[in-house]
Each structure stands twice: as C-alpha cells, then as structure tokens.
Model the fold of this input.
Amino acid sequence: MNVTVTVFAILVLAASALGFTATRTKSADLRDLQEWALGGRRFGTLLSWFLLGGDLYTAYTFVALPALVYGVGALGFFAVPYATIAYPIVFLFLARFWSIAHERGYMTVGDFVRGRYRSRTLEIAIAATGVLAALPYIALQIVGMKAVLSQLGGFVAIGGGAMPLAVAFALLAAYTYFGGLRAPATIAIFKDILIYATIVAAILIIPHALGGWHSIFTAAGKALSAPLHRQPLLVAPQMQFAYATLALGSAFSLFLYPHAITSLLSAKSADVVRRNAALLPLYSILLGIIALLGFAALAAGIHAPPNEIVPMLFARFFPPWFAGLADATIVIGALVPASIMALGAANLFVRNVVAPISGKIPSSNAAATKWLTLAFCALSLLLVLYMNVKFAIYFQLLGGAWVLQTAPTILLGLNSRSIPGRALLAGWVIGMIAATSFAVSDGFSPLVAIHIGAFTLVGFIAVYAVLINLAVAFGATLLLRVRPPEIEAA
Amino acid sequence: MMARRAWYWLLALPFIALLDVPIYDRIDPRFAGIPFFYWYQLAWVVLTAMLLGVVYLATRVRER
Done:
C-alpha cells in the first residue's frame, strides 16, 4: 500500500474517532434537543469560528470552485466577493436573528416564522424550502469525496470508491446520531488545522514550481482563450452584471441554509456572532487562493475532469505523504458539513414540517430528529451512488435559488411586522415558481438573460426570482391594507 | 450621541466596491504577477474584515 493512501486512511479514521469522543459528553443530557442539535447554545468565539468555518467552506467548494475557474476562468471567481459580502450581512442581520431566537427559544428558521407571523402554512413553506435545498448539498459533499477517492487509487477506489464512501458515511451517521452538533464541532477543529496547513503548503510550493503567478496567469490565459472574449482572465462586459448578481444572491442565501443557521444558533451570544463576522473572512482568503489553483492546473497542463484537478495538483506537486494529508483534508472537509446539514435539515423537517401538519407544538425530545438525521444521510448516499451526479448538481443549483426565496420572510421579519405573512407566502409561491421555471427553461443554467427593450441583462436566476417575490409581497401587502381591518389574533 | 446606525454605513463599502464590477475588471496594475481583478477582490476580503472589526468595536462600546 502506498504512502499517500496510508496517510489518507489514518487521518480520515482519526477524524471519525474524534467525532465519537463527542458522544461521551458528561456535561449535557443529549436526549434534550437543545443540547443535541445546538450543543446547548454554549459555543464561544473560537469554537464557533472553527465550526462555522468547517461548515460553510465545504469540501465541495474546495473541489468545485477551482474546477469552475479551470473551466470558465474569471467568472468562477465570483465566490470571493460572495464570501466577502456575506459577512456584513451576518453582522447586520444574523446577529439580530440570534438575539430573537435566543430570547424566544427558537431552534430553526421555521420556529422563527411560526412565532413572528403566526402562520403555520408559511412555517411549512419556509422549512420545506430549507430541507429541499439541504439534501442535494449533502449529496454534493459526497461527490467531492468521490473525486478524491477515485484519484487515490488502491483499496479506497474499489467500486469507484463506493465501499469507503459507505463506510465513512456510516461512521458519520453514527457519531452524528449519538453526539449531535458536538461531533462535527470537534472534527471541525481538526479539519480546519489540516486545511490551513494544506493551503499554506499549496501557496508556497505550487506557484514556485510553475514559475510564479505571472507565468501561471499567462499560461492559463492561453489555455482558456475563450472564443467569447478576447481577454479570458477577465469577466466579459456583458457578464459583469451576472458576476455581481451571482455574488449578491449567493451571499444572501448562504446563511439561510439550515446548516448555517444551526451553527449560528449554537453560538453563546450575539457578540460571538458579530465577532465571527469579522474573523470568518480569513477562510475567504483561503477560498480565493483555492480558486486560483484552477489557473495553476491550467498552467500545469492538467487535462482531467474538472472535479479531479485539485487532487491531481496535490499528487503532482506534494510529496506523497503530504498529498495523502491534503486528500484527507478534502474528505474530512466533506464530513463536517454533511453531518451538520443532515442534522439541521432533520431538525427543520421534524419541528416545522411534520409538527405543524400533525397540528402539534414541536417537542424538545431529540429522538425523532436523530432518526431522521440517519435517514437523510442514507438518502444522500443513495442519491450519489445510484443517480447521475449531474442530477445532484442541478438539484443543488435549484436549491440555492429556492433558499433565496425565504430571504424576504426571514430578513423582513427581523425588525418589523409590517409585511403580513399572507403577503410573504404569496411572494414565496411566485418566487419559487419563477426560480424553477428560469432554471428549467435554460437547461439548468444559473444565469438567465432578461430582455428589456433593446437591453439584454444576463443575471443570476435566484436574484431575478427574489425581486419578483418581493414585488408580489409588497403588492399583496398594499392590497390587504385596502380591505377593512380584520380581527388580529393577539 | 452619534447613532450606532452611522457606523453601520461603513458596511456599505464592501457592497459598492465588489458589486460595481467594471471598476476592477482589468489586468493592470498587477501585484506579484497577479492581475488587478484578482488581487483587488482578495484585498477587499481583508478590508471587509477590518471594517467589521472597527464597526464591532465602535458599536459594542456604545452598548455599555
């Protein structure tokens, strides 16, 4: 067995073992949902930083982002402005969300919607959107793991990596089931240290080996030579609006995903959330460097399926043992968010879809959520093993556009209740239909061209859909005001 | 008393600087061989973190 595979296997098993240490927490009763799903809301600045960093900057990001830059050049770099402007949004809106949730004991966005708008229909709509968006996201973490496993060869590549995937995921399901959020939080520390080591090594070794950034960009420019645009290292003028809307729309939807909300609510104070808004951009610098690895792969003349270029760069430029460490980093980087996504989605589904349909108040017992977490893990694994990867990618893209349709309800409800729940529900319905039809009409492209007179504006479907959503919500609010006032329920 | 809201306006800067793509969609000046388009956006990651730090400290003091 070669060195790379050995180091890889040892590190992934060590991470899983760490996950199980969290299942032996003595300080808390893990049968209580608050303790199991939110770590008792006791995480301080440092642990929150590791957890949010491990949760938001996923393995799929680390595989797919350089792949995107490798394929389309500058346009793929939108992830950097996206991961930057997300933090003023966290500071301004999500810290406030934390405070409201803490004061009222809300555990999910669905709880917030029920409390704010007293509409169980809206609660189900917003919660179901989050669950639907989370499932393909979990599946894509597995896609990221698969890209690494198939590159590694040896025993881990047996059956296209299906066996080791199933083992890693069974372990993940087990420690999440027993330990709750504390399990991925513990692994996140380990994972993030590995990530920083990998990226520092990558930036020290790879540009040097390829003759510096200037020659990397020159070579990458030649390799891309996009027919659309005479300058492939820049965004074409007609795509600049698309670039800005991709960044803006993604930034607003990032923290509305169930896994982001779960990690956010585990912080022990709103101050921890605000401090992390200022500290988390450190990960966005890593993200930018990783995106530039797409150009390095072009300059190195790597020809491969885009998802495999990062492990190929590691294999080419790192010593074998370090390549094993870097590959393990990606796989562990998939386990942390996958665990939190399954947990967050399960919690949302049990509390805000199942409970309102059966006419109940959500229980504080963790049992149902724990079982559903296992089911979501299994479902995602099946999705990747038995379905086309393209299906998961399309579904994930659509999920991103859907999640943004929950933004008006959540963000407008933070400081006022001037927009009634019924108006927001109407906006949500039209926004979801708009997002879906934009996506389907153009072969699941995230971009759509809108023609206004002689102008053509190419933009992100999620942003166009949410503008329609807002227009409907505001319009409906005006219509509801014209009618005589109704009797308000408390 | 300066309103806390006044400090929050600082946080509009990253949105303007990053969403107005034409202002940075060019190659020169390069930094360490990296085209302007890329290093400008990476620099704004750092600047945004610093702005958030300033706003955090300024608004926290006022809360007490």
